[in-house]
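fyi for ur records
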Amino acid sequence: MATRKTKRSPKPRSSYHRFPEVKGKVVSLVEVDDNASAIIIMFDDNTVLGFDLDSSHVIFPQLFDRNKGNWKPLKHWPPIYSPISMVKWP
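which gave:
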């Protein structure tokens, strides 16, 4: 009986968005504003990666150790809530 060759499926694409321009930069500070409408990552070379957030959401900040391919939780902070976005009708 002939052996059946199986086709390998292509590598699954990550659902994360990556920012290769920041690879190798040293982070000096991470901030989330009080209304949870922006996340700012500041680097030692005085550049900033910022994320403006819209709508109502909750941010769950966590620090992980990704050594050896495992995601080991190291620290959890309290959730950060954005204000509820309300649609105004005329």
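Residues 23-81 form one domain. thats all i got for now
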